[in-house]
Nucleoporin nup82 (Somion occarium), 861 residues
Amino acid sequence: MDNDEDWNAFLRDHPIFSLPKSVSGPTGKGNNSLELSINTLHHFTDLDPSEDAPTPSGRRQVMVIKDADLIVAAGSEIRIASLGDSKLHKDSPKSYKTLHTPNITFEIHSIALNPNAKLLVVAGAFQVAVIVLPRPGFMKLVPQVVDCKSIQIGQYNHASNSAAPIAKVEWHPWGEGGTTLLVMTTDGKLREYDISVDTEEPQQVLSFVPEKRMNSFIAEDASEREVASFTLGKGHADWGPLSVYALMRSGDIYAICPYMPKNASIPSSYIHALECFVHAKQEFLSHSVINASTSLSNLYDYQHKYVSALLKQLPSGTAFPASSQFFVLHPPTTIKGSPIRQGPFLLQPSPKLLDGSEGGDATDLVYLTFGTPSADEEDEGKTERLGVVLITYRDGKVDVCLDVEKVEAKWEHRQNNDLPMLAVYETIDLGVISMLKKVTSTPSGPSILDLVDGNHPVFLRDPIQEETVYVYHAFGVHALQLGGLLQTLAAALRDDSSNAGDDDLTSAVEKSGGTTVLPILTTFSVERKCSNPVIGVAIPNDVYLTYSIFILTSAMRVVCFPLTLRSELDSANEPALLAVSQTKDDFAKSLSQSVSTPLDGPPAYVSLLTEPFELPAVLARQNGLPSNPILALPPAPQDAKSELQLTPDTLRYLGTTFERFMNQIREVQLAYKAAQRRAELQRQEFKRQQETCKEMLELIDRLHTSRQATTRAKVADTQEAQKDLLRKEERILRLLTKTASPELSEHETKWFQELKRLQEEVIGAGRYDADSLEARTALLRRDLNRLLPNLRELHEKEERLKKKLAEFHQSLGVSQAFEFGERSNAERSKISRLETDIQRLAERLDMSLGRPPALHETYKS
């Protein structure tokens, strides 16, 4: 689709967004059931298993995008349409296909694609099913209904009347073949299903809520035993990818580590990096000055045992520098004991409460890491370990926490009792409470603030820009941009690692601007005091579709916003620019101290543009989102008047909106004037630079023509004058020497005599002096040349003998060589005694004997 076109115009009347029959049909509930108001609040909070009403967790995600296909769940129906075909054939009628899944009869509340985008999980309030998606080209089929295979998941655990409601479903990214499905229920049971193995019985079950003991009483709230959501940890060389975090409705966070799917596909580089991480922990503990506790040492030993069991499953040759590959691994069976539940996490300092709110229930959490492995891993390695945990609540509060102390693998009876900790960086207010407080409630009726009980904010990561997270809820959508926060923290961590200054790190953290919050959509009607909750948000991740965000409300109204795709160069330069700006003053100070004083000459050129131009904040829309939230109000009833009813609330809302627009218009005008002044200044600077450049070109031309000939003549005259001065200087020096000392001194005479004696000793008194050092050296050289061939021959014979002896010894065993040595020593002693007897007999007979042969010659013979 062209940039000038808008997805809103194309999808506004698309039939895929028609209301389901359960709402618009003759026996439907009507459009009012889709609104969140005081009258319909009980539908969003009460639990009725017979009707399969909205889930107690309130999580809704009924729209996903697979490549260029749009998938929408309406009631119990799955609809799919090709946006790519619609992009190519704009004049063709708009249509969609319905997936025929007869065993899915429940109301679908959330859907999710598996990692290879071939399977689709659909979840209702209590039931879960998996659909095998059709192959590409389904839109070319004639029938409007496409048959698809669908499978019920864990009917015994999730389809019975006594089953716990579904809190969240998610595919594990490291499941073999992308078939590992995680299902979390509100009772704290996380069940792992492998679709390719067994769809009824889970492969593993993790429990985040301990069982209550019989005949025991514990003073705890029910929200402390109800799970609201869960997420998987992240990391590159730690226990992050093997961690699972669970969020209770009370706001408590628990973690279980290690956890990996029963049939996992894990990159080999991660296993080797984890081994290095555990080994470094053990080395640090062994070299630590402080005596470590026995439990900590046993814990690291157990971690090393776990990692070693994983390494044994990898084939040989996977270590560095071999390229990383995915291999099928299984949890070690040699590890005794189950991973223990760690927590609750200590939130330090304690998060703040919003004004006008007593604190709502927690609804969702997400774990984010920034910086992916690339060619420049050395620089990114400093920040990729920085994890960020976001927690959202019903009242619109979002806590931004830093995971400075990541959880590690712990097992039962092999851990210390220290609670993990999350550093609370800031608390964000989405403005839900303040928005509802501006609406006047009826004196005799319930408070409008009760609508917060039906709110359920949900996080959605941006698949392309990892520093952006979207929060959609019952009153709209907000975008959270953590880029500036993370860049400041990354620069502070780099400075802290190089300078080791805690004060600099603290000051850098305090100066950071925090998270940028942008409201992009509002669904609350001040006039009717109701809202259509957002039930789906999707962002295309396909090169054939425009980078944008699709938002779907409960009234099946879709709103699209084009997004701006930031280049990798801009993202890579921002940390460097931030570091340069922080050290600019110090660099200028050191530069002024190190540079010497310039020589006298023409003054340096001073530009009119002393400071770089900074785009005003009102015009800086790097992500392309609107500066004001778009209204997506519920449709008015058919019997209501089309005119706007003026009430104090609507007048107050219009006044506030008008004031905000006027302030933005004023800021835009000021930004326009600032841009005009800057453009005029740049034009003046450009004119000055042109004039200066013209003067420089004229000067260069003069230097190349007339000035060059004159300068060469002056240089030649100077060289001739210099030669005359050198000749005069030499004559004067000789005259001064003769005048000062006409005869040699006593020491000079002795020195010249000693030099003459040394010359005669080295060269000789005459040509045929045989006692000179030169003649003796020549004689030695001739003798050496005569002996060298014999020496080389002896050396070669010795090397051949050593080689034969080495081969002979290698052919013998240890016992044979030892026995051979003993016999050789005995024979040598006999030969020695025989030689002694022969010499004694020759002395008696007055006979002379020659030199006895050498030992190695005897062996050779």
The two ends are 98 Å apart (CA to CA).
